[in-house]
Amino acid sequence: xxxxxxxxxxxxxxxxxxxxxxxxxxxxxxxxxxxxxxxxxxxxxxxxxxxxxxxxxxxxxxxxxxxxxxxxxxxxxxxxxxxxxxxxxxxxxxxxxxxxxxxxxxxxxxxxxxxxxxxxxxxxxxxxxxxxxxxxxxxxxxxxxxxxxxxxxxxxxxxxxxxxxxxxxxxxxxxxxxxxxxxxxxxxxxxxxxxxxxxxxxxxxxxxxxxxxxxxxxxxxxxxxxxxxxxxxxxxxxxxxxxxxxxxxxxxxxxxxxxxxxxxxxxxxxxxxxxxxxxxxxxxxxxxxxxxxxxxxxxxxxxxxxxxxxxxxxxxxxxxxxxxxxxxxxxxxxx
Length: 335
Fold this sequence. Notes:
By secondary structure, the protein is α/β, with parallel strands linked by helices. About 35% of the residues lie in helices and about 15% in strands.
């Protein structure tokens, strides 16, 4: 039995001031304030390596700073994902005092593309928010969700980051959402995208993290140097494979899932304590079978990089209806 979740990803509110093209949707009703604080108290008991607080837009959650304070007191590193539209001097100062590492969502690098993807946002406000976070030393990265709608902007993303002195770019492959098949990337797309990201990283020298399980195998196949630090500028953690079932995602209504994008609920944090739900995850037969890479079918099963990757399970299930099939978007596929 795995002792601790690798991380905890918590969508703390379903309220949002934007309507983004790739939004996965938010569950209702959201947990009441008292239960949110109780849940925050339980997180340090599980000793995750870090916690991600997101939403919706987390700055709309009344209890946000109390939650951040509780988690900080528990000694857990905390990241906050925000769209930046509600940031101001007071908020940035509070986040800095709580040593929160902030990731700001970008997705488009000019006014037109940005505001088309993130409806209701303002490009000028985004840039002001980035500068404010930099001022307080808490800007960790800009998050870019890559799909058919914006993958041709790779160099522009680096230029944007260079202009605003953003220390790191996190590329997130589009995961299941509304109209997913319309925007999801294929294996050939990923071959071009990762190659382009590598070329731009060498040109601009900005740290990058590419959140896909096949990223590390792709680098090894193409003999590209990388490290677990920013020495090379290419950040690949020691655990870069699919971590389905190795972490917990807490939905806005308290539902707990083995992956942020999995249509599989293992308990509700409004009804049961988080340590008990984590124990239930370890005993769940389907989850344990999915985590067993020997269960993979097709090309994944024969791939020499199977245990360094495993393929994204939630994407695979969304596109094939089978938890165990090969990842349709893998750039190492032979066909």
